[in-house]
Every structure is written in structure tokens, then in C-alpha cells.
Amino acid sequence: HFDGGQVFWGQDYPCDASINRFDNNTCENQASAEPAGPRSKDFQSAWNGLQLFPDDPQLFSMYRPHSLVLTEDNCFLLQYYIQRVVKTFCVIPNSKSPWEAYLLPRALQRSGQLATCGSTSYSGNALLHGILSTSAYALSNTLRLSGFTERADKWSQAGRELHHGAIRLLNRSVLHETQKYKELLASMLSIIAVDLVSDNTDTCGIHLSGCEQLIRSTSRVKNQYSSKARGLHRVFLYLRSIHDSTSLKGRVASRSACLELSKTQGNSHESDSTVSYSQLRFDDDEWLQTSQVSAADTATVATMYGIPHSLLILMQKVVGLVKVVARFREKHTGSLFSSDLNKICGLYNRIENEVMEWPINAELLLLTNGLSSDVYAEIVRRQTRAFHNAVIIYFAQHVRLLHYSYLKHYVESVLLELEIIETIKKNADIHAGPLFWPAFIAASEAFNESLQICFRAWFKSVKVYGQYAPWAAKDITARVWNREGFPASCTTSEWRAVVE
């Protein structure tokens, strides 16, 4: 949050110096350049554990570097991040994504500065901590999948301590440094990445709010952004959109929402009954400039997440409508489809038509023309179809409250596209991550045993990417599938009712 124009980034956690030997000194922004000790047994165990991936030849090129600043475990984590983890943040290989083209080089630059000068910026050190924490959690998840529980626990603990250190350093950057905007934003995004690969998902919303406060504050004094800054904005936009769609606490009628409910005159009942499409204000381009794409922009929503920018904005409209409808139903118990609700959502049909009639073929033609590979184009086409069908399901399960039998076709379509994508990547030897949101939304409406078996298999197959999402999604969907009966009075989707 902001206090006097400054961001405070959560709790100021203590950090174990034995894990973070390159941590900034509390008062003087110093970093001790301690020589690395002998190779630890834990390091050797972790290295042996990595031989579980003989199908990935890149792992055999990893070496065990000495460093005057980083411990050997941290050197190993940095190598693991470079060779495996960073590649999972995009759905197709993209060396120009902010993760590979900005966050990673800047973290390496700051580690080099620590080695040569003995100190670096708090924000740069926070970025380095965030990347190492992400790598540690990803490694832990992968080892746990293979049954190496003790090693997994060790790396999970390392990730937790690095995460706390990153938050502490980021707080100090805000308090004591003249911020470099892109580096500070990148540091924040690196901490959000930790939330995604770990089980610390409860803090994700807090960290996204901190990001948003920074961007909005900067937008008051800055009108134009570089292509790198716009790329960072697109990462934030996607992550926030996904979080908003699944968070239990909405952001309706807040300044921070990308979809804001304009204030109307009169009492609350009159306000509820007079909301129109035009009163839902979309202001992302005003402060994020995500739709401004120039020849220098290589980090677009399409090349990172495999979907058109317009589809992401359409999803936001649906999420905004869901929040408005949910708020109305909470205030007016039993009014699922009352005349007042029809008034507040006279935009039902407007947004529903946009969803159902979204020009997918035209969008895909524009989207895939600029891709360098036919294989990449095929992945993007299928990813877009899966995402669009998931948006349809999301609208139907929250606004229309349709029975799952009406959604079976869309559920099957999402599953088929996601399965084919994984097959394509395996056959083409492509190491890139999946999008979990379409799978989770579709699986939450899969009340057919054969579909459930297929979704379980898909969630299991994508655990190899090292993210926590497959575990969480599989757990929630299993609870939905095992739910006995569905209350007629329920005013939301089954998965949200289960989580609440």
C-alpha cells in the first residue's frame, strides 16, 4: 500500500544469513563478499536429483560455478532458473519476454555488481532474491513430484527464506532509495512469481495491489513508457486479470479495478437498478498502455500467453460483470433473476453477445501472421480457442448459472485443445509452460467420469513445470466433483461455493 507516496510491501521478514550471504546490510546498503565454502552434501543431493530429467539435454550442460557472493546452492538455483524455470512463464519460447529479456539480465547484472563492488541496489537485490526463491520453489515442486520429499522440503525452506528476504529488501528500496521504475516493478513481479510457484497464494492479491499502486502513481507523472516497461505492464495485466477472476473478494467500485462501477445518484437501490454498460469504465490503456504495440514491442500478450489482447480485455469485462452481479445477489437474497437484476444487468446481453460473437478466426489470423514458427502458431491458435471457451464457461457458471450439461461441449473443447498443446510441445521438444486458468474453469464443470479422468491426467502431466497451480486446481476440482448435491439457493459457481 501507499503511505505518503511510498509503497510498503508486506511484512518485514527476518532472513537467514546462512542462506542469503549476499543480503544488503541493514543500514549501509553493503553486501559482504564471502568466498564460497566447500560443496555441500545438499548441493550434491540436489544435483543428483536433477538427473531425473534425462530427456532435457540442457540440464547436462549445467555446471557448478564458484562465486565470491552467492553460495553454491544459490548458484545452482540461478542455473536452474536460467535453464528451466524462466522458460515456463510463456506458452511458446520467447527470449524477448520480460522474464528473459529484462528480469533475468538485470538480476545477473546486480549479482555481478555485488561480486565486483560489494554492494548493489536494494531493488536489484530484491529482484535477485525473488528469482532465486522462484527457482527454489519450482525445484521443490519437481522433486516432490518424484518422491524426493526430504530434498523438496529443504528447497522449499530455502525458497521461503529467500522470499522473505526479497520482501524485506523491497521495503527498504521503497524507503531508502530513489527508485528506478522498471527495476522496482520487475522486483515486485518477481515476488508475485514466487506466489505462483509456491503455496503462498494468499499473499498474491496484496502484492498485485502493491504493483498497481506503483504503476498508477507513476502514471500521474509519466505519459510514455518504453517497450520494456509496457512488457512489464502486460505481465501485470495478465496476472491481475487471472487473480481477479478467481479471488473471493472482488474489487467492484474501487479505483484500482480495471472495470469500475461508476457512482450514480440516488439511493443504493436506485443505483443498483440503473447501472448500464456505459457505466462500466475500462481504463487500462489510460495508465498501462498495454494496447499500444510498436515494432519494438516483442513482449505482447499473444507472444507471452498465447491469446490476443482483445480476448484478455473481454475476459475482464466478464469478470467485472460477475463482480457486479455477485454484489447485487449478496444484497438482495433470493433475487437470482429479478426485474431489478435485469435492470442492473441490462448489459447481460451486451457482454454475452461480445463473448459469444468474439471474432476468433479474424483475431487468430492477425495473431499468427507474425509468429516465426508454424508450431508456435498452432499452439497459439489452440490456446486461444481454449481460453475463449473457458471465458464462455466462466460467464455461464457465474452469471447465467447454467447446469453443467449445457456446458459439456465447451468443457470437452477446452480439454481437447490443452491435451493437443502438450502433445505438440512434447513432439517438438518445446519447453514452455501451460495456462492453468482455462483448465481449472473447464474442469470445475466436468461432472462426467471420463472427463474427470482426463482432467486428472492433464493436471498430473503439467506438474513437471514446477508450478503449484496443478496441485491447487486438482484439489479444488476434486472437492467440487465429490460434492453431494448443489443447493438450489446458491448464487455462484460450484467451485466458488466450495472454496467459500
Automatic annotation (TrEMBL):
Residues in coiled coil: none
Keyword Nucleus appears in the UniProt entry: yes
Keyword annotations: Nucleus
The UniProt record lists the keyword Nucleotide-binding: no
Cell location: Nucleus
Chief localization: nucleus
A GO CC term attached to the entry: nucleus
InterPro entries recorded: Fun_TF
Protein name: Uncharacterized protein
